[in-house]
Amino acid sequence: MSAFLASSGAASAWSQPFFHHALLAGTFIALAAGLVGYFLVLRAQVFTGDALSHVAFTGAMAALAGGYDLRLGLFVSCVLVALLLAGVGRRGKADDVVIGSAFAWVLGLGSFFLTLYTTSASGSGNGGAGTSVLFGSIFGLDGGAVLVAVLIALAVSVAVLLIARPLLFATLDENVAAARGVPVRALGLGFLVLVGVTAGEATQAVGSLLLLGLLAAPAGTAIRLTDRPFRGLALAAGLAVAEMWVGLAVSAWIPQCPPSFAIMAAATAAYAATWLVPHRPRRGRGAETLVVARG
């Protein structure tokens, strides 16, 4: 693919089906990542997202080693581990001690499955599969993969928007939310399932190593730019999509620049730029909770 880009130039690349596939899938993947990432940062669960990025690699390698489609391993492993982490945590929130204990073991298990796959008959001569999982292969998505990515990302986005208000209430003050009848634990479990699905989805675009950046950077930028929750949610989603577009365009324009790197560079630049903007003091969490509860 990079050889084609180098020989044809950006203008020609932008007219090719693989770029259209990447743009369509990337747009919806970024939308879901921005929405989920906003709550991930707001709920201080970024470490959970980091853990799931390692789980995505391990799950994909396990599926390949077993002769299955890597997407099956991505989604199943991320969702199951997200549920496990939430189940052993308090009120559906993963515990950092539990995550830290499993962190290195999960990555080591991924290395084990990678070795099994590369030494098996099905994996011999295809050692690049591990690299594509680690760093993404958004320009390699075919029409079927794009359709699956769009449908899953749409489902995640709709689900986040449906639970946004009670999830925000539970995030800002879970004790008050629980007292008012909000199912705090169920929301926590459901949210981490959405995080797991998004992690499996986004791995196809930016890879498991850079997955956390797509989840956290747009959300961190939005939180620094506004203290209004729903405006921040919309801003995080918009930033994620814009950064995806910029990254894909830069990668098409400069063939030597991998799309995952270009996307993360755009996200990092946007976050760094917020430090040039005067940061207003936040309103108290109690006031925000009151607004959400009454809304």
Automatic annotation (TrEMBL):
GO terms for cellular component: ATP-binding cassette (ABC) transporter complex. The keyword Membrane applies. InterPro entries: ABC_BtuC-like, ABC_TroCD. It is found in: Cell membrane; Membrane. Its main location: membrane. It holds the Pfam family ABC-3. One of its GO terms (biological process) is response to zinc ion. Keywords: Membrane, Transmembrane, Transmembrane helix, Transport. This is Metal ABC transporter permease. It comes from Streptacidiphilus pinicola. The lineage of its organism: Bacteria, Bacillati, Actinomycetota, Actinomycetes, Kitasatosporales.
